[in-house]
Structure formats: structure tokens, C-alpha cells
Amino acid sequence: MLANGRISSAPAAFASKAGQRIRLWLINAAADTAFRVGVPGVRMRVTHTDGFPATAQNEVDAVLLGMGERIDAIITIPGQGVPVLAVAEGKDGYAQVPVHAGANRAGTTNDSAVEELKLARVATVADSPPLPASR
Q1: Which of 24-28, 51-55, 123-127 has the lowest mean pLDDT?
Q2: Structural domain includes residue 48
Q3: Where in the sequence is the domain holding 34, given as residue range(s)?
Q4: Which residue spans traverse the membrane (predicted)?
């Protein structure tokens, strides 16, 4: 399982600052796996689903992405580094992208972060109300 072309044991990390807002462009390119994607302990504001603006920009703990689905979300980096995790539904394994907050190099995942995400309440693309029909 890859995130930005890297396996979870050798992830590509990104630097950030505490309080900085970051837009995540999440795409499930898998052929047979749905992924629960989130940042443990950080809420995400879903702004777009499958390329269309979300009519209700909900804050969620995690999203469930089916094959080929896309979601844009915004997170605010807390005072410590955090991992963006994609946990395979019904399978072992995950992908991660650590986001460091300043000089704080925390943010790589551990088993408790993966378990926390598995238990998080999720939103799906179907949870976003459809846009009104054009006339």
C-alpha cells in the first residue's frame, strides 16, 4: 500500500507549522480495496467529493473511500506532527504521510493511531447531499 508512491515503513514526510491549514487531495487508486482515511485526533472539513463542491462542508473524523473515489478535505495542523493515514478496510496494512509541525518530528504512525482510525466514525462520498438539479 502506497501513499505518494512510498510504503508505510519509508514514508515521504512533509513539513508544516502548528495552526497551518492544509488541503488534502485524497484519491483511492486501488482496484479492489476501500480505505478509511483520516488524521487521528484531527477533524477534516470535506470540501469536494469526486471533483464537485460538497453542498454541506462537514467536519469528519475520517472518510471511507471506495475504488476510484476522490475527496478534498482541509485540516489544521495541531501543535505536534500528525500522520495522514489510509487504512485498508477488511485487510491488514495501511499507508501514511507524516506531517511534521515545525521542528517537532513526531507524526509517524504507531499501532494505536491505526486502531484509533479504525474505530473513527466515517463519512462516505454518498453522505454528501447532491447538488440541486439545474433548470
Answers
A1: 123-127
A2: yes
A3: 2-126
A4: none
Closest CA to 63 of 28, 103, 41, 35: 35
Torsion from C-alpha of 58, 63, 66, 69, nearest 10 degrees: 50
Whether residue 104 has pLDDT greater than 50 = yes
CATH code for position 92: 2.60.40.420
Let me know if residue 6 belongs to a domain.
yes
Q: Which residue type is seen at 37?
A: V
**Counts of helices then strands in the chain (DSSP H, E):** 1, 13
The cell for 132 is: 440541486
Cα angle at 117 between 1 and 97, to 5 degrees? 45
Model confidence, pTM: 0.77
pLDDT of residue 105: 57
